[in-house]
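Repro:
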Amino acid sequence: MLAPVLTAALVFALAQEPASPQDPAQEVSLSMRVNRAIEKGVAWLRTRQQPDGSWPGFEGEHPGGMTALCTLTLMKSGVRRSDDGVRKGVSKVLGTEFRSVYSHSVRLMLLEALGDPESHAASAEAGLDFLVAQQVGGEWAYPWGGADMSNTQFALLGLRSAHRMGLAVPDATLVNATKALFRLQEEKQGGFKYEVNRQPTGGMTAASLGGLRVLEELGEGRGAVTGLLRKFAKQHALADEWMVARWHPAQNAYGPNGWTPGFQYPYLWAVERWCGLTGRAKLGEHDWYAEGARWLVDEQMDNGSWQDTQENTCFALLFLRRATVSAGSSGGSTPEELAAEIDKLRPPRPIDPQWDVPRVRDWLVAGPWRSEGQNDALLKLPFDPAKVAPREGGKLLKRDWSREQLKPDGWVNLDEVLGLECDHGFVALATGVTWELDRPLDALLWLEVDDPWRVYLDGRELGRSQRISGPADGRESVPLRLERGEHTLLILVEDELGPACFGARLTGRDGKALERQPSISTALGRAKGR
C-alpha cells in the first residue's frame, strides 16, 4: 500500500517547490512513479536493518556511518521519528563511537533532522569538535590518508547541521575551508577535482558548489569569510558555468569532454543539494529535478533498491524525496491497483548480450595516436575514418596495421597487444564482415571497453560514446545492418589511463546468438586490390 506517512511528507515537500512548466499529465505520471519509487526504496531499506537497529556497512573504517545515513534517509523520505525503525536506528547511532569524517558528518545531519537540539547537544558538540580538530590545511581526510573534496563536502554539511543546531563554528575553520576549496578547482575549465592530480567531475563540482553555498550561509556576518568569497567570485562563476554546460542526469561529467558512470548516485545527490541550497529550479534550459527523477525511477530495481546497495539507494531517495503525487490522481483506484499501474509506466529493462556468444577475435590493429589535450583523442581525429583502407602490412598515418587474434575468454589489454602504452591516446581496430544472404542482417555489436569509442561501418559512423572509466562489462552496444556483400568494420578505442580494454561480440537485436553468423576476415582490400 502507499504509506500515508510518505504521502503527507511529500505533499509538504511539493509546497516548497516551484511549479513545473511541463505538461500536467506528464508531471502527474512522473509524480506517481516517484512516489511509488520512494515507497519501494524505503521498504527495501527496512529489510536491510538488523535487529539491533543497525545497517551494517564499512564498519571497519566508518563505524555507525551507514546506520546514520540510512536512518537519515528514512526520516527525509517522510518516516516519522516515532517509527520503530527510526528509533532503533537513532539509538544505535547514539551508542556508537564514531571515528571518521564521513560518519561524524552524517550523524550531525541526522541529529539536526531529529529537531530536538537540546536533547542531542552533547553528541552534536562532540561531532563538531571532531570536525574542527581534523581539518588540515582547510580540507578534510578520512582522517587517515590525504585530504580530498569528498570528505571536505561531507565535513561542510556536518558543520552546517551543527550551526543550525545552535552551535558556534569557529571563524578560522570557515576561512581555511574557503581558501582550500578553490585549490581543487581546475583553473582554466572551472570544474572541481577529488584530489589535486585528478580530472574535474560533475559530482565533485556540484558538491563544491553546494559547499560554497554552505560557507556563504555560515559566513553571514563574518567579514573574513564573505571577503574571501567575493575575492573568488569569478572562479565561483566559472564553476557554475562548467556544471550547467555539462549537466546530464545519467552521465557524471569527467574532464573537459567525457563522462563516467562512477559515483553516479552521489553525483545526483550533490546536484540536488547544490540546487536545493541555492533555490535553483533549472540548469540552463534543463529541469534538473524532473530529468534526474525520470532517470532514477527507470533505474530502480524490482526489489526497490538501486544496484542492490544501501548507499546508492539512500542517495537516490535523498534526491527523489522532493516529489509528490496528487491525492486525487488515482481516479478511485485501490492502492494496490494504483501501484500496479505505476509499475507499468516503467520502460523495459535494457537487454544484455548472451554471454556465451563467441567474441570477434580477428582484427587488424594500428596505433596508438596520442593527444596533447584531455579526453579529446577521438574528438580531434588525425584522419578521416571514411577514407581509412585497412590492410595487413599497410599503414595508417605512419602506424602499421598488424594482424592480431585476440583471446576468446575475456577482453584484452591493447597495451599488451601493441607492446606500447596507449594512455591518453587511441587505437584503431578493423576487420572485414561478409554477409551472403539477400535479406539484410540486423545485429548488435557489443563492446568491452572502459573509455570513449567510435564505430564505423564502410566509413559511416554508427555510434560513439565519451564515457570514461566505465566498467568493461560488455554492455556497451551499437546496432548495425549488414546488406549482402563485403563490409569494413572500423572501431576506434580511446585509453584514458590504465589498461586499454577491448572485446567485441555480434548478436541479434535481442542479444542472443545469431542464427547465421556473417563471415569475419582480416583479408581486407585484397579482392579489390587495395
